[in-house]
């Protein structure tokens, strides 16, 4: 009953009703106070209060007490309101190089169930859709979850996705080029389907539940074995006319450089990802080294591993310096597993950014400076964002 | 009377009244039909019709017949509505290296009067404000214009301007670093003051009355003796946290390259502006050559001048390729005097863009392609945009 009610409030109710506005607001923001709801929705405090009474009575909204991590202070934590985790579920799907990951999450974005579908390289869309459907069914079955509470399906794709849902050729899964995600999953899953590039999903995760909560304008820069990114302006993802916005890994910094998988030369990804540095470390050490190994080695004082992190930071900072001269964002969030290196990465990266970008911190007031910080979600970020995509599509993100 | 009425409608009326909405819409869009007004304001056709009757009776709005350049067709041109040019004036000011230009324009953005105040390098803000005030007074006096009809003053600055109006150090006029434009001109001119970077002003001119009319998302790339730029997203200028967005000339494409006036190395401006190519032509020819000369020489088949235009196009296309991989905009407008070279510049520039950017035209549907076109206002664009800034500040641009 509660599930059907939440679904109808999120999907079917006119956007203008107080109940619809409040539920959509909570689906985007997680746990917030009545005062914040009033501010974010533009509804009068008394209207919010009346609507909340009804929503709490029907079990859609619950009261929760939480101390916000970002607020240091003493005393009783503020009472906040959140969607009832039992009121509905969302599915997040991440399409990567050779496998598909599926999660079922409640509306408070806690993962309830998770499956990985192993497919091998160049898997065809039709097969992927069928196996994904089976994996979702298993998730619901094994956890005795009612499928009727499913609110939507978000799909994270390792490549540019057009605003209409078409995967572009520059994707790392070549068999998906030109394929519309909605056309593939819609008929099979019989649910509302939302799709975005994986880095855009990461940005949604940071915006809804991470390092960018409350921030309407920021840039996400992901450093892992590849480089990805996302731009949020006025609270919305910038997708670009063909879904190619935020493709920071493919900024060409050397037109005479090595060939990149995208078909261009000298792309930033070749220098600012941790792929080549890992190869360098392995060559010197003579054994296989993972990203986790390299970061542990650097933390323990291995000069080679540390130098590789610093070199990656220098190139990432140089690329971000270019992005800074173009967008001059208030906030840059460093994501990807490399962010786990913390200050070993951030300090040289910030120094390189300062050197290469136009506006120098020393020349502007503190409030006009670009802040560069570590992301909160450096693992599972795309899957979490896919869940957020399904929730937020009923609200701020269009 | 009409002037006071327009001023009150633009400045004082609540934004929600039909008359206020229509007048602000016309101040941004120039001459449009009643149907377009209805679409843009969201007002019902009947509400627009009633309000227009009143506005025409009071002389604020007039009917005009014009054939839109963009629409090819035969038959009677459509009746359009515009603000009465006699209903008010705006002042546009452009602060450049060693002089200040002042224009007075009517609300249909026709220039009525123009003055240049010659100042010499490193002119101080106080002196500039006083001389500008005198020049404005002369403009009104000589043309018997009533100062009471002045709706606002827009200031275009050759350098980054923060959202609060502070000129940043990277400006080409060092004496203005850290100066707030509103603080300088506000007390002297006793008028509402709006300020923006000169390329942002050019973008406003293109958006309101040029090549970007009706386009909510585009990039402006100015090629002249320097390189400038602007980004418009969702109908608004992206200023950046410190006013540094759109500074395409200072994308560093070679960290080991020559020193730039901004203090960085290898900035795009050093390669994609026409400053160095002009020096090359002069060196070969042995006499002084202006930009106009060089373009005429190229059009007449001079291989050296043509090569210099092509080389500039190659670097501009490479820089735009980077911007494309970051923003993937639907439209790129080439401004600055170099745009007057037309296809001599655009053809190699488009080829270079295609080579260096991630999303290739051949891989996406025609409607997902980035269009690259020449701007409409390649001269007086900053001044025109300063006028637009004063008008549009009462509407779409915040």
UniProtKB/TrEMBL annotation, chains A, B:
SUPFAM superfamilies: Actin-like ATPase domain, Winged helix' DNA-binding domain. It holds the Pfam family ROK. PROSITE patterns: ROK. Coiled coil: none annotated. Gene3D superfamilies: 3.30.420.40, Winged helix-like DNA-binding domain superfamily/Winged helix DNA-binding domain. PANTHER family: GLUCOKINASE, ROK (REPRESSOR, ORF, KINASE) FAMILY. Belongs to the ROK (NagC/XylR) family. This is ROK family transcriptional regulator. It comes from Pseudaminobacter soli (ex Zhang et al. 2022).
